[in-house]
């Protein structure tokens, strides 16, 4: 039978023209006006909307909200559309198992259906979410990673080791595709500590001359400790130029120093949308790839657009996903804020501070919003802090909520009690209210944070709902 293969399903030359990378990225966007960018965004938004109106998922959600096709004439009308989130996708899967009705494939004849890349989320918080990608949107998603790496200053012919997980989850696979399709680097798909033991990972780096590490920085930091335990000196035996990861609010100095002075770069994206923003050589926030992603920052409670420079949820519309699984006003529940200073690169793109925590993983304590991911960086000024921590939210017998922060420190057990008042005072000063603190030794929190086996370590144990 005749049916399309992957490379026949999209025009790769047009894709590279529409979504430039390398020197072409600067040539295309440096000095572009915001009005010209808005025109490009509007054209792509309307193409995505045309596809989305044919999909039962959006027909149902938008119909229930009373939105009609003629109501959306331009990107300026986007606020008329309701937000969607992972819960809506999972509701679709429950109604129409096993893949849901959000992708737009059901009405395509088998012989005409494009090849599909299929992954799932990790499922650590429940049933894994299906992730489906058409060839065009899959390649643009990968290209945006390659664009980000090259924008950061990835050297030609680098050797990159990836600590992203593989298996059914998307992360490691699309990073491999990005590097092999859109750079000329050698790629080592080491994966997590479960897939390739940490000792073996550091030996791979030494043996093959790895100069770039990519992954979640909590584990990358852990690998520097493993290297030292093996008698391998980061910066001497393993010479890392760049660490490209998800830094969030983590301390850059500690991670850079652990790897002999490597330069760190942050980027942000989620499995459904791909790369949304990336730090550049200016190290001045993260540049949102606004030719591919339309980013709104909305109030975490009202869903109204926040005053620029105010913290809010990142809500994303993918301007390139007009083939399979269009994503329109997807609430990531990740919070950030827009940076309002001048873009030193000369791009018309907005910049964001980066990932600052999750609004659905927030602890509200006596009127103060506490984001667990932000607690670690508060402790970085303490020289004995080893970088690992976890927060526990509890409710006492009177119904009062409390937060306890467990901290790994390089201090003998008998000396820890004398340090507790200093840690409590530090956190009270930075958070605004008093929280509990317990100091423990190196590695004692690993079973709770799962930093050695998870891409994203656990930072909050919420025992109020048990």
TrEMBL record:
Pfam families per record: AMP-binding_C_2
UniProt cross-references to InterPro entries, sorted A to Z: AMP-bd_C_sf, AMP-dep_Lig_C, ANL_N_sf
Residue ranges annotated for the AMP-dependent ligase C-terminal domain, each copy included: 367-464
Record's protein name: CoF synthetase
Annotated source species: Rheinheimera salexigens
């Amino acid at each position: 039978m005749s049916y399309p293969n992957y490379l026949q399903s999209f025009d790769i030359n047009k894709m590279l023209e529409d979504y430039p990378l390398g020197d072409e990225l600067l040539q295309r966007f440096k000095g572009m006006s915001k009005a010209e960018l808005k025109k490009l965004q509007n054209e792509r938004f309307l193409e995505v909307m045309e596809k989305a109106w044919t999909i039962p998922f959006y027909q149902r959600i938008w119909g229930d909200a009373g939105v009609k096709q003629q109501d959306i004439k331009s990107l300026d009308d986007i606020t008329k559309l309701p937000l969607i989130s992972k819960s809506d996708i999972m509701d679709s899967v429950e109604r129409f198992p096993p893949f849901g009705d959000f992708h737009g494939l059901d009405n395509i004849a088998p012989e005409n259906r494009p090849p599909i890349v299929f992954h799932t989320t990790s499922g650590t918080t429940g049933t894994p979410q299906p992730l489906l990608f058409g060839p065009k949107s899959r390649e643009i998603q990968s290209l945006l990673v390659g664009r980000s790496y090259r924008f950061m200053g990835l050297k030609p012919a680098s050797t990159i080791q990836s600590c992203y997980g593989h298996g059914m989850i998307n992360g490691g696979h699309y990073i491999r595709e990005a590097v092999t399709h859109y750079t000329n680097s050698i790629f080592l798909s080491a994966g997590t500590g479960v897939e390739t033991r940490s000792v073996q990972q550091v030996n791979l780096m030494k043996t093959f001359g790895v100069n770039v590490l990519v992954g979640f920085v909590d584990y990358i930091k852990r690998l520097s400790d493993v290297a030292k335990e093996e008698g391998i000196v980061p910066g001497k035996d393993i010479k890392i130029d760049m660490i490209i990861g998800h830094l969030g609010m983590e301390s850059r100095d500690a991670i850079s120093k652990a790897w002999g002075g490597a330069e760190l770069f942050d980027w942000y994206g989620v499995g459904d949308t791909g790369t949304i923003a990336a730090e550049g050589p200016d190290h001045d926030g993260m540049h949102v790839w606004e030719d591919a992603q339309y980013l709104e920052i909305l109030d975490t409670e009202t869903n109204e657009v926040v005053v620029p420079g105010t913290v809010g949820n990142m809500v994303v519309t993918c301007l390139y996903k007009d083939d399979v699984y269009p994503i329109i006003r997807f609430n990531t529940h990740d919070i950030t804020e827009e940076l309002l200073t001048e873009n030193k690169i000369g791009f018309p793109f907005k910049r964001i501070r980066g990932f600052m925590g999750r609004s659905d993983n927030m602890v509200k304590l006596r009127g103060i919003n506490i984001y667990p991911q932000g607690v670690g960086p508060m402790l970085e000024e303490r020289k004995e802090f080893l970088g690992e921590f976890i927060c526990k939210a509890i409710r006492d017998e009177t119904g009062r909520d409390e937060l306890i922060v467990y901290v790994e420190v390089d201090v003998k057990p008998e000396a820890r009690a004398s340090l507790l008042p200093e840690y409590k005072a530090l956190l009270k000063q930075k958070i605004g209210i008093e929280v509990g603190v317990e100091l423990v030794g190196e590695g004692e929190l690993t079973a709770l944070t799962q930093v050695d086996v998870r891409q994203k370590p656990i930072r909050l144990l919420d025992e109020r709902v048990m």
